[in-house]
Amino acid sequence: MHCMSVATVAVVAGLTLMGCNTAPVVESDRGDEKAVEKKAAEQRERSEEAAELERRATNLESQWTEMQTKVKTRDRTATAGLREEVQEDVKNAQGAVADLKTTTEENWWERHERALERSVSDVQADVQRLTKQKTMPEPTEKPEPVGTAAGFGERRDAFVSRLRARVDAMEEQLDRTKAKGALETELKDTRSRIDKLQEDLDKLRSVSPDDWWDVSSERVDHYIERVEQSIKRLDDNQAQTNKPRT
Question: What is the pTM of this model?
Fold first, then answer.
């Protein structure tokens, strides 16, 4: 009888102990499930945002075609340089969205660097053409390759400083340039692109790796917005004539 009581107590104790041990496992499973759900929700949100950007990028084509017709009807002429720039931007917008769809936490910064470098180089080429300046020397400081000892903050700050020097130089050159008529419209468009680069570099100084999607999607969003504004600028009244204003 005594042995049976001891055995019974042992079994009850064992079952109680097993029940206690299962609690952390259940809580861990629930935590994992919530993490998976959160990740899936974030991915759905990113996909929806990318789809909306794709719709806007596709709509640029019709806006461009409509503006070309309007400009011809009103007998207005933008410079060939501005028309070519806008047409190229319209085509590149869809590529930017496609690139965004494959952007991840691992590759976002390299892509962001590459996109900003390309934007600065494009604006620099237009500044040189408008100001009739010789090719600007490239900065001696180069970005740290992926996988080096430089931390994110150090690499980010070096990148911003390097591009800032180039953009400041372009802004100074453009400030000394005057134009009239259709060329003034192109000058205004180039200045707005420089202002946007300065704004982007200001914001970039405080970003962290956790901001990867916001930074990447905002870049594409602002790019599309700038192209929309450039298309509208083709119908600027200043483009009607090359004669001095009275």
Answer: 0.74
Residue 150 tokens read as 């430089």
What pLDDT does residue 147 have? Answer: 44
User: Which residue in the block uniquely carries the two structure tokens 């028309």?
Assistant: 83
Give the three-class secondary structure for 180. coil
**Nearest-angstrom CA–CA distance, 76 and 70:** 9
Which pLDDT score is estimated for 149? Answer: 43
CA dihedral sign of residues 122, 128, 129, 134: negative
- C-alpha distances out from residue 191 to 78, 126, 169, 188, 231, Å: 16, 10, 13, 5, 15
pLDDT at 108 over 80: yes
CA 140 to chain CA centroid, Å, is 25
Nearest to 99 by CA among 90, 88, 91, 108: 108
Q: Enter the DSSP assignment of 39.
A: H
Asked whether 233 and 67 are in contact (CB, 8 A), the reply is no
User: Distance of alpha carbon 217 from its chain centroid, rounded?
Assistant: 5
Task: Select the more confidently predicted residue: 182 or 57.
Answer: 57
Q: How far apart are CA 125 and CA 89, in angstroms?
A: 15
pLDDT in the model for residue 208: 95
Q: What is the pLDDT of residue 19?
A: 54
| Of residues 84, 76, 68, the one with CA closest to residue 129 | 84
Half-sphere exposure of residue 182: CA atoms within 13 angstroms, side-chain side: 14
50 token code pair: 């990318």
HSE, side-chain direction, 13 A CA sphere, residue 242? 4
Distance in angstroms (rounded) separating the CA atoms of residues 111 and 103: 8
